[in-house]
Write a structure and sequence with these properties.
With 512 residues, the chain is α/β, with parallel strands linked by helices. The strands form three sheets. Strands 2, 3, 5, 6, 7, 8, 9, 12, 13, 14, 15 and 16 form a twelve-stranded mixed beta sheet that branches. It has a two-stranded antiparallel sheet with strand order 1-4. A two-stranded antiparallel sheet has the order 10-11. Bound molecules: 2-acetamido-2-deoxy-beta-D-glucopyranose (4 copies). One of its GO terms (biological process) is lipid catabolic process.
């Protein structure tokens, strides 16, 4: 463990692929640097391993019994009991076990794999997007010897910011702490608080730059890829209840910031906050779907990298041969739900499924994605909404239903959390337990949509995350891992509502 300073060189390597001129360039930042704490910089060439010397198995599909579906059958939901810890008496983050954290985040145990996480910048290629750099978080299944059980430190909040890639890390941290960025989640909230082992409410089990776990089965499987798109003015890591959870179940999950649409991101060493032309709504509608394609292309080229192609001993090896970029799902929240719908409409053959959370698809000025006018009515989709979502309002939440009803040629699902709102589909309770719009411990913070003028008491956010993750995981397992009759019970799970009808509306339109 070294005490590190922030005066570290900015980029270790900028690797361009000469074999394919259109392939995006992945710029690798030197991560795991913080101005205040001790960290270990990892050396992938020494830690990379394909070991089997652990008891977690490496199968693509763990069996039925290994997928915990949570306890959510009916009646327990109708009580007002909460599974959230009392923040004033809960143990400090440092003292919580991995399982305690997982339960506190999603109400579900962590999946069979420890989770690694890394930050890269994926740039556009020769497709007119050369200037579009995307700071991207990638969560992935890691080998057990890099897990928490071996006392590897979990990722601190500031590590996600990628401050070490900033030209001026001190200034970048100052901007991150401003009232529009991290301070915008709760008055007075700072990065330092989220980093503090005594005070932090930020929960994660992800290990920075842990060694990726390769699949050890005989069927030639690689991990399927999931791309996540954040909401407007949001931030790529504020959805870790979903992104980290999916990685623990055997997926590579990549989430970029959309520059101009994200509240904060760092590209080529410079902090970008909203403003200017790239933040015009119409421009964001154009940029965001292309960002998603850029990420898929970027990961596709990196997963084909050969460890001996050049002298760099970095992330090019991390994902080598581990990702199936022909088996991709797209998912996103709010404007990210619009983005997901638009990407599905591009009919990219690599994309096999989509999950849209409180999607703003009908707020778009350019397309009517929720109507029958869209191109693609066949890619399997799951639509999730909070009934009380006052950001979408009646008109736009209803268009999410229309999308499902108009999806004539493929499987579609609707999941609606009755006492949920717009922010139900985020991890914002980790910033602020009284965030509002679906996250609150009392009614006073949540305005009702179904009863205008009134307030509602949202379902405990941990329970909401459990519901979202149970259905979301089953859906992804069915459509991304369900090949060759491979089934872990997800198909059956998807057929019915497993929660009280008082709390959850669920509709499955399965075509075959
Ligand atoms: C990483 O490990 C390899 C193999 O042991 C070694 O040759 C190389 O110098 C190390 N690189 C760094 C940056 O420590
Ligand atoms: C949390 O714990 C504190 C201290 O014991 C107590 O005063 C408070 O009422 C508790 N809050 C809830 C919501 O239970
Ligand atoms: C919809 O997109 C999928 C890829 O996600 C593609 O296989 C399918 O052909 C598309 N549907 C239409 C009607 O083009
Ligand atoms: C998901 C959804 O449609 N939720 C509410 C949105 O508004 C309609 C009325 O237009 C309500 O019936 C829905 O419950």
């Amino acid at each position: 463990m070294n005490k590190r300073t922030a005066s570290i060189s900015i980029f270790l390597a900028a690797l361009s692929r000469s074999s394919t001129t259109t392939a995006p360039v992945v710029v690798l930042g030197f991560r795991s640097i913080s101005t205040t704490s001790s960290t270990t910089a990892r050396n992938f060439s020494t830690t990379r391993s394909t070991t089997t010397n652990n008891n977690l198995g490496g199968s693509y599909f763990v069996g039925n019994n290994n997928i915990p579906r949570g306890g959510g059958l009916g009646s327990s939901l109708s009580s007002s009991s909460t599974t959230s810890l009392n923040m004033s008496t809960k143990p400090t983050v440092e003292k919580m076990t991995r399982e305690e954290k997982a339960l506190q985040i999603t109400g579900l145990p962590i999946g069979p794999y420890p989770v690694g996480v890394t930050t890269v910048q994926i740039d556009g290629g020769e497709d007119g997007r050369k200037d579009r750099g995307l700071q991207t978080e990638i969560w992935y299944p890691a080998v057990a010897d890099d897990s928490l059980d071996n006392n590897k430190p979990v990722t601190k909040f500031s590590d996600y910011l990628g401050l070490d890639t900033a030209l001026d890390p001190t200034e970048a941290l100052k901007i991150a702490n401003s009232p529009n960025v991290i301070g915008g989640y709760r008055d007075g909230l700072t990065v330092e608080e989220l980093d503090s082992v005594e005070e932090s409410t930020w929960l994660t089990n992800a290990i920075r730059d842990a060694t990726i776990r390769e699949i050890i089965d005989n069927n030639g499987h690689k991990w399927p890829l999931i791309i996540f798109s954040h909401g407007s003015g949001a931030y790529r890591i504020s959805y870790s209840f979903w992104t980290e959870f999916l990685a623990s179940h055997g997926y590579i999950v990549a989430a970029c910031d959309h520059p101009g649409s994200a509240r904060y991101t760092i590209v080529n060493g410079k902090v970008i906050t909203p403003g200017g032309k790239r933040s015009d709504r119409l421009q964001m509608e154009i940029d965001r779907p292309l960002d998603i394609i850029q990420i898929i292309n970027g990961i596709e080229s990196s997963s084909k990298w050969n460890s001996n192609s050049n002298g760099n001993d970095n992330d090019e090896k991390l994902f080598k041969n581990c990702i199936d970029t022909n088996n991709v799902a797209v998912t996103g929240m709010s404007f990210g739900g619009y983005t997901t719908a638009e990407v599905i409409d591009l009919c990219d053959k690599r994309i096999k499924a989509g999950i849209m959370m409180c999607s703003s698809m009908s707020m778009s000025g350019t397309k009517k994605l929720h109507t029958t006018e869209r191109n693609n009515k066949s890619t399997p989709v799951m639509i999730m909404i909070g009934t009380e979502d006052t950001v979408l309002g009646d008109k736009h939440n209803n268009s999410n239903r229309q999308y499902v009803n108009n999806h004539k040629d493929g499987d579609s699902y609707l999941l609606e959390i009755k006492r949920g709102g717009h922010v139900s589909f985020t991890s914002c309770e980790m910033y602020n337990t009284e965030y509002g719009n679906g996250i609150a411990t009392s009614a006073t913070k949540c305005k009702s949509l179904s009863k205008p003028g009134e307030e509602y008491n949202p379902l405990d956010i941990v329970k909401q995350h459990e519901i979202i993750n149970n259905y979301g995981l089953a859906f992804l397992n069915k459509y991304l891992k369900g090949d060759n009759g491979n089934d872990d019970g997800s198909s059956e799970y998807l057929q019915t509502n497993h929660y009280s009808d008082d709390e959850v509306v669920y509709q499955a339109n399965i075509k075959q």
